[in-house]
Specification:
Helix content is 0%, strand content 50%. By secondary structure, it is mainly beta. The strands form 8 sheets. Strands 16, 17, 18, 19, 20, 21, 22, 23, 24 and 37 form a 10-stranded mixed beta sheet that branches. Strands 25, 26, 27, 28 and 29 form a 5-stranded antiparallel beta sheet that branches. Strand 18 and strand 19 form a beta hairpin. The chain is globular, with a radius of gyration of 21 Å.
């Protein structure tokens, strides 16, 4: 095991992607302030190939296309929003304007083979013109390569609550009771996996910005028609489970679950745990996850087809990077200042130990030659290991890992 390079970027890293297992890396970070976004291309030795700064929205959003164009969502000159396509040499390929309503913001987007899919939600107050309020009606829309809107589906989150969400007020006689379902104060995209596309299905997650209780909406990619919607639950990690299939997580207010939904939007499996899952080419689901027991212990767990859990090694807390899996079935991720590997027999080893115990919720990328890329705050570590090549699979390997574009077409 060897640390090959360690380098800093302008601000907190929001995404790291690469078109090829040999690099270079494309990173999206904050700039000098939260309203500046910086995109950089760096090689694995940490040499900056190019760097560009853009007006930002406070939440940098980018996706790398299979053709090597890095797409960035940013405020458009003169108002509105645009998707900027940046070529591998740092030059701008083209800009795709996205007409939007007052008070709207690009909450998430993905790059399709022939266009884009975008979820819209209310913009942050610091982005609004005087007198303009954030939009209260989120939506999901599909666009052509030129930015022509093919369909736009409004999202009705509806009054939401959860059995574990409690309230105490004059209305309850100052007794603690389960909160009554109420319309959301504002609606935002789910934090993890807010917009996923698999086959001809879209999974878009939205949540009440105050409580975090939300739903995942399954849409038809061709028509935008609503296929199904989940019951309200504390929003957590979503993932692609296969063609037209998704994993939907719930965590908080006493809930701790991971559910699998098929193409018709019906639940086909449920596990009493929640975490950063991977799904390999055989459909095997595994990852660092906390259990639904009162202690909420975290382990590397494998989720079986019979809704059972196979427990692996214990983890000291719930904070890990999103793992990658190699062709030998070894799961690699960052946890507690260490790069850990858990093999197919659930035996854990430490690949790298650091005095940096920052609690990271980023991604671990597995490149060629066993090289691992790990982001830590504004830093990137490149390490050489004996791991095999990246495994194929719906999530987060294959199409959704190196490119950082959660689309399985």
């Amino acid at each position: 095991m060897m640390l090959l390079s360690r380098f800093d970027l302008p601000g907190q890293i929001w995404s790291v992607a690469t078109q090829h297992p040999s690099g270079p890396l494309y990173t999206t970070t904050y700039g000098a302030n939260p309203l500046e976004t910086v995109v950089s291309s760096v090689d694995l030795a940490g040499q900056v190939r190019w760097q560009r700064a853009y007006p930002g929205t406070g939440r940098p959003r980018s996706r790398l296309s299979p053709g090597g164009t890095l797409w960035l969502a940013r405020p458009a000159d003169g108002g509105g929003r645009t998707l900027e396509g940046i070529l591998p040499d740092g030059s701008v390929d083209r800009s795709v304007p996205l007409p939007c309503r007052a008070g709207e913001e690009v909450a998430a987007f993905v790059v399709l083979g022939v266009g884009f899919c975008v979820s819209w939600a209310g913009a942050a107050p610091m982005l609004l013109a005087p007198g303009v309020r954030p939009s209260r009606v989120p939506r999901v829309a599909r666009y052509s390569r030129e930015g022509r809107c093919l369909w736009s589906t409004p999202i009705d989150l509806g009054p939401v609550s959860h059995p574990g969400l409690l309230e105490m007020s004059a209305e309850t006689g100052w007794e603690v009771r389960t909160a009554a379902p109420r319309p959301p104060s504002w609606v935002e995209a789910s934090r993890w996996g807010p917009l996923l596309v698999s086959g001809d299905r879209v999974a878009a997650g939205f949540a009440d910005g105050r409580s975090g209780v939300g739903r995942t909406f399954f849409l038809d990619l061709v028509s935008g028609a609503l296929v199904a919607v989940t019951d309200p639950a504390p929003s957590s990690r979503n993932a692609i489970a296969g063609p037209g299939a998704f994993l939907v997580g719930a965590l908080g207010y006493g809930a701790c679950a991971m559910r699998r939904f098929g193409r018709d939007g019906t639940e086909s499996a449920r596990w009493d745990c929640n975490g950063a899952m991977t799904v390999d080419g055989l459909g095997a689901v595994r990852g660092p996850a906390r259990s639904a027991t009162p202690s909420g212990t975290s382990r590397l767990r494998r989720l079986t087809a019979l809704n059972d859990l196979v427990d692996g090694p214990h983890l000291t807390d719930h904070h890990t990077s999103h793992p990658a899996v190699d062709t030998n079935g070894t799961t690699v991720f960052w946890h507690g200042g260490k790069l850990l590997a858990v093999d197919s027999d659930m035996a854990m080893s430490e690949l790298f130990v650091s005095d940096d115990d920052r609690r990271v919720l980023g991604r671990t990328l597995l490149l060629d030659g066993g090289r691992v890329v790990q982001s830590l705050g504004s830093e990137i570590l490149v390490l050489r290991t004996d791991l095999a090549a990246l495994a194929d699979g719906p999530w987060p390997c294959g199409d959704a890992n190196l490119l950082g574009n959660p689309v399985l077409e």
